[in-house]
Amino acid sequence: MSLPPFLLEILVCPQCHSALAESGQDDERELRCTGDSCGLIYPVRDGIPVLLVDEARRPS
Questions:
Q1: What is d(CA 39, CA 26) in angstroms, rounded to the nearest whole number?
Q2: Which of 2, 4, 20, 38 has the lowest tally of Cβ within 10 angstroms?
Q3: Does 60 fall in a domain?
Q4: Does residue 17 sit within a domain?
Protein backbone atom coordinates (compact mmCIF):
# COMPACT_ATOMS: atom_id res chain seq x y z
CA MET A 1 0.00 0.00 0.00
CA SER A 2 1.57 3.28 -1.06
CA LEU A 3 1.30 6.58 0.74
CA PRO A 4 -1.28 9.10 -0.49
CA PRO A 5 0.15 11.57 -3.04
CA PHE A 6 -0.84 14.62 -0.95
CA LEU A 7 1.27 13.26 1.93
CA LEU A 8 4.35 12.89 -0.26
CA GLU A 9 3.91 16.52 -1.37
CA ILE A 10 4.23 17.85 2.18
CA LEU A 11 6.78 15.45 3.71
CA VAL A 12 10.43 16.50 3.62
CA CYS A 13 13.67 15.05 4.91
CA PRO A 14 14.20 16.17 8.51
CA GLN A 15 17.97 16.32 7.92
CA CYS A 16 18.23 18.51 4.80
CA HIS A 17 14.59 19.50 4.03
CA SER A 18 14.63 17.99 0.51
CA ALA A 19 11.65 16.17 -0.98
CA LEU A 20 11.11 12.47 -0.30
CA ALA A 21 10.40 9.78 -2.89
CA GLU A 22 8.67 6.49 -2.17
CA SER A 23 10.42 3.24 -3.05
CA GLY A 24 10.49 -0.44 -2.13
CA GLN A 25 7.94 -3.23 -2.05
CA ASP A 26 4.70 -3.20 -0.04
CA ASP A 27 6.24 -5.10 2.87
CA GLU A 28 9.48 -3.04 2.79
CA ARG A 29 8.24 0.42 1.84
CA GLU A 30 10.64 3.30 2.46
CA LEU A 31 11.10 6.99 1.71
CA ARG A 32 14.32 8.19 0.08
CA CYS A 33 15.63 11.70 0.41
CA THR A 34 16.13 13.26 -3.02
CA GLY A 35 18.83 15.65 -1.80
CA ASP A 36 22.22 15.12 -3.46
CA SER A 37 24.20 15.67 -0.29
CA CYS A 38 21.92 13.69 2.05
CA GLY A 39 20.22 10.63 0.53
CA LEU A 40 18.97 9.16 3.82
CA ILE A 41 16.42 6.35 3.59
CA TYR A 42 13.54 6.38 6.08
CA PRO A 43 11.43 3.28 6.87
CA VAL A 44 7.66 3.11 6.61
CA ARG A 45 6.23 0.87 9.32
CA ASP A 46 2.58 -0.19 9.21
CA GLY A 47 1.90 2.56 6.68
CA ILE A 48 3.43 5.27 8.90
CA PRO A 49 6.63 7.06 7.79
CA VAL A 50 9.28 7.06 10.53
CA LEU A 51 11.00 10.39 9.86
CA LEU A 52 13.63 10.20 12.58
CA VAL A 53 17.23 10.76 11.53
CA ASP A 54 18.34 8.14 14.09
CA GLU A 55 16.09 5.54 12.41
CA ALA A 56 17.23 6.36 8.87
CA ARG A 57 19.95 4.49 7.01
CA ARG A 58 22.52 5.65 4.51
CA PRO A 59 22.34 4.32 0.94
CA SER A 60 24.76 1.49 0.26
A1: 21
A2: 4
A3: no
A4: yes
